[in-house]
């Protein structure tokens, strides 16, 4: 097997594990910036905003899928991995994006959707023709997907429920009446799962990934990759939940190692981040291990599952701070020296974090957004900033289902408000409230650039409504102010570049049982960081243990960053008070 030619000139030097002190900016291209007024964000739009990302201080971008797509799931249903969605631009635009990003010292991570394709991908169109071709030869594409026979009464091969609702098994629309073959789709019926057991398919995917790396991209975000190996027995699941059988199947580790060997390891210091719901620190230790033989890091979901998570997201449950602290601490400690964490609150699948905790409106809006940012960015791992998070963008108040675009929310609407069977039913008003609270479209409303119509996102009609608060929350306004959320993120990101301890220091929680404050230290032999974040809209008290004071009292102390203009000094003492939503980081050491 020959190596793909490396286009040296377009590749920035990638030092080993460069992601460990990088901050990644995530772009959802459809909603970022529309350059031609058709209402849809596009690649020239992204290129035009690279200086903005640079100004923020991020040194890598993860861009959500920009490939040819049938758009049932906004690009997560690919019809051709080697073409660009024409709504977004051309291959030349993609190449220019790589080049322009690199010129600015920004690396580009692209989204790889390898668990499934679109039902309109040529592979699937061929596959659904049946096991044999009209001339009697076996259909080479049949085994690119997962086909099983249904039961004697036409029932699906098992009771697995798709993540976007309904049975995980469907028959192709073109199937003859008497056909009993179903294909598996973990997400929607328009997203048939690829059959990773087929070596020919795996080689096709590896070749395609090498082709992108040869173009100069710096790595991959691996979409839903934990699902590529399934329990080969396809047993019924207790409650229809697909995850225990469809994720982390018996061949997952083998496939992941093979992908590393065949793709990542053939290029220098490629970064990979594997999206894996159902992750545990034990799994992270294997898949994001330090020897680089699988992925660079993973996205775990446990912290976001605290208010319902994927298994049942349509609730009003709130994240409990004590639970959050225990969980984050567990990850920080378990992975230290063994694997690498990603740090994130937001992405294109999550409601805006400042609406989940913090205050999305009122006098504490910006202060609470800064508090939440500071609290996570100073942990160990690679932080991700999702477009608009750096402005404190909030959830959208959906008042009609006609405003909703997301396939997941639309399916949930049918299930919980429609006539069909469901354990729970909601009124339409209740469901709209839940979508406004939890739906994925909250993250997908257009980026708020300025106070001009459509928030400066598009000169046309945006494909999804702009959040009405754009006149108040937008980038142009925040760039004029030194105390804006944007400027705070900028400072946080700059700190990571300056203080090695943020990347390398150990983590320990402080005042663990405090129900209102998240306080922790980062430490090395000679240095210490004290991080304190008040999650409440009232003053709180923090207590530090005696040994913490003893080890730091002879060191010089300085506040590196605070969200509270009243916090000018910090005196190390056994207890101290935090103002509402106050957060700061203090450095102890020789300065
Ligand atoms: O998400 C995969 C995933 O695990 C989902 O269950 C995710 O947690 C869910 O969307 C939350 O509501 C990835 C992509 O990030 C998502 O946008 C895609 O829809 C999905 O894969 C299918 O490709
Ligand atoms: Ca456009």
Summarize the model shown:
The protein is an alpha/beta fold and 591 residues long. It has 17 helices and 20 strands.
Question: How would you characterize the overall build of this protein?
Answer:
- It is a single chain.
- The protein has 591 residues and is of the alpha/beta class.
- The protein has 2 domains: 18-115 and 195-488, Glycosidases (TIM Barrel, Alpha-Beta Barrel), CATH 3.20.20.80; 505-589, Golgi alpha-mannosidase II (Immunoglobulin-like, Sandwich), CATH 2.60.40.
- The chain is 26% helix and 16% strand.
- The chain has helices at 43-48, 50-56, 91-103, 122-127, 199-215, 243-246, 252-262, 281-287, 321-335, 353-356, 365-377, 407-417, 428-438, 475-479, 485-498, 500-504, 546-552; strands at residues 24-27, 60-63, 67-69, 78-84, 107-113, 147-149, 169-170, 181-184, 219-223, 271-275, 297-299, 342-343, 382-386, 506-510, 517-523, 528-534, 540-543, 556-562, 575-578, 583-589.
- α8 packs parallel to α9 and α11 (365-377) runs parallel beside α15.
- The longest helix has 17 residues, at 199-215.
- The protein is globular and about 85 Å long.
- Mean pLDDT is 95; it is low at 1-10.
- Residues 73, 76, 113, 163, 187, 223-224, 275, 277, 310, 348-349, 408, 440 line the site of 1-O-alpha-D-glucopyranosyl-D-fructose.
């Amino acid at each position: 097997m020959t190596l793909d030619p490396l286009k040296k000139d377009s590749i920035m030097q990638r030092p080993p594990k460069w992601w460990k002190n990088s901050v990644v900016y995530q772009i959802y291209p459809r909603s970022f910036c529309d350059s031609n007024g058709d209402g849809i964000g596009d690649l020239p739009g992204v290129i035009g905003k690279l200086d903005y990302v640079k100004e923020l201080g991020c040194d890598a971008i993860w861009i959500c899928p920009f490939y040819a797509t049938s758009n049932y799931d906004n690009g997560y249903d690919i019809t051709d991995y080697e073409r660009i969605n024409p709504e977004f631009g051309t291959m030349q635009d993609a190449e220019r994006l790589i080049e322009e990003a690199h010129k600015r010292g920004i690396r580009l991570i692209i989204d790889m959707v390898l668990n499934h394709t679109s039902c309109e991908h040529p592979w699937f169109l061929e596959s659904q023709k049946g096991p044999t071709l009209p001339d009697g030869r076996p259909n080479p594409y049949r085994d690119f997907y997962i086909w099983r026979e249904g039961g004697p009464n036409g029932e699906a091969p098992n009771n697995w429920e798709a993540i976007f609702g309904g049975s995980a098994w469907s028959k192709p629309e073109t199937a003859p009446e008497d056909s009993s073959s179903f294909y598996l789709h973990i997400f929607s019926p328009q997203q048939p799962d690829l059959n990773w057991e087929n070596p020919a398919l795996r080689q096709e995917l590896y070749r395609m990934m090498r082709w992108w790396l040869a173009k100069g991209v710096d790595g991959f975000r691996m979409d839903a990759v934990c699902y590529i190996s399934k329990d080969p027995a396809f047993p019924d699941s207790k409650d229809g939940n697909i995850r225990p059988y469809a994720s982390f199947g018996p061949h997952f580790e083998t496939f992941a190692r093979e992908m590393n060997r065949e793709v990542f390891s053939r290029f220098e210091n490629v970064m990979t981040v594997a999206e894996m719901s159902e992750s545990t620190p034990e799994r992270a230790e294997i898949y994001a291990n330090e020897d680089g033989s699988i992925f660079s890091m993973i996205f775990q979901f446990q912290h976001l599952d605290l208010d319902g998570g994927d298994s049942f997201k349509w609730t009003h449950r709130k994240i409990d701070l004590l639970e959050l602290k225990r969980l984050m601490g567990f990850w920080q400690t378990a992975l230290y020296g063994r694997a690498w964490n990603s740090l994130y609150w937001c992405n294109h699948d999550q409601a805006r974090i400042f609406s989940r905790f913090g205050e999305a409106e009122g006098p504490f809006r910006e202060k609470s957004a800064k508090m939440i940012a500071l609290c996570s960015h100073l942990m160990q791992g690679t932080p991700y900033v999702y477009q608009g998070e750096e402005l404190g963008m909030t959830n959208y108040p959906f008042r009609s289902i006609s405003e909703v675009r997301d396939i997941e929310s639309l399916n949930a609407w049918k299930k919980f408000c429609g006539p069909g069977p469901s354990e729970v039913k909601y009124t339409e008003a209740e469901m709209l409230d839940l979508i406004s609270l939890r739906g994925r479209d909250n993250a997908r409303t257009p980026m708020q650039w300025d106070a001009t119509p459509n928030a400066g996102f598009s000169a046309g009609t945006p494909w999804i409504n702009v959040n009405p608060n754009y006149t108040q929350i937008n980038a142009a306004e925040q760039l004029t102010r030194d105390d804006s959320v944007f400027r705070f993120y900028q400072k946080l990101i700059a700190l990571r570049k300056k203080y090695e301890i943020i990347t390398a220091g150990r983590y320990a929680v402080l005042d663990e049982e405090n129900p209102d404050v998240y306080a922790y230290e980062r430490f090395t032999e000679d240095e210490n960081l004290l991080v304190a974040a008040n999650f409440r809209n009232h003053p709180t008290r923090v207590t530090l243990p005696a040994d913490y004071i003893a080890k730091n009292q002879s060191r010089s102390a300085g506040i590196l960053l605070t969200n509270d203009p009243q916090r000018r000094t910090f005196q190390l003492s056994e207890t101290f008070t935090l103002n509402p939503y106050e957060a700061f980081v203090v450095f102890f050491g020789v300065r």
